[in-house]
Design brief:
- This protein is elongated.
- Helix 3 runs antiparallel to helix 4, helix 3 packs antiparallel against helix 6 and helix 4 runs antiparallel to helix 5.
- The longest helix has 20 residues.
- By secondary structure, it is mainly α.
- It has one domain.
- 73% of the residues lie in helices and 0% in strands.
């Protein structure tokens, strides 16, 4: 074996650090998939419009999400884009069917996350906020 024991220890340390970093980095595609699943159709009535009660719940969750985005540690451009989506989503919920709205909001959030160049930590923060806002919300009853 060539090299000194110090070189071997140094190489092992670098390898172990790289493995640790790889294991700890979140799988952003998996997280995006989980977030998209929050909006997956759960009932046969997805082509219906939101009821008044559902609209109130959706709009309340969107306001909560907007406040979360405003308080998040995100680049200003990304924050503004995400807040704009939540504001537009409230109006679209009144106009679109549940299915169309879910498709629109899912695509909008994914597009915003991908195009904003967020760090993995920032992306995780955005996905967590979305999950908190919509994780327990019935969207297709």
């Amino acid at each position: 074996m060539h090299g000194s024991w110090e070189q071997v220890k140094f190489a092992f340390h670098n390898w172990a650090s790289a493995v640790k970093m790889e294991v700890e980095v979140p799988d952003l595609w998996l997280e995006a998939t989980k977030t998209a699943e929050l909006f997956a159709p759960t009932a046969d009535h997805a082509d219906d419009k939101f009821t008044r009660a559902e609209l109130g719940a959706v709009q309340g969750q969107l306001r909560m999400l907007e406040h979360g985005f405003e308080a998040a540690t995100l680049p200003e451009e990304a924050r503004l884009k995400l807040v704009e989506i939540t504001q537009t989503a409230a109006t679209k919920a009144e106009l679109l069917t549940k299915k169309d709205w879910q498709n629109w909001i899912t695509g909008s959030f994914i597009n915003a996350i991908v195009s904003s160049g967020l760090t993995p930590v920032q992306t995780q923060e955005v996905l967590n906020l979305i999950r908190m806002a919509f994780g327990g919300l019935f969207l297709n009853e």
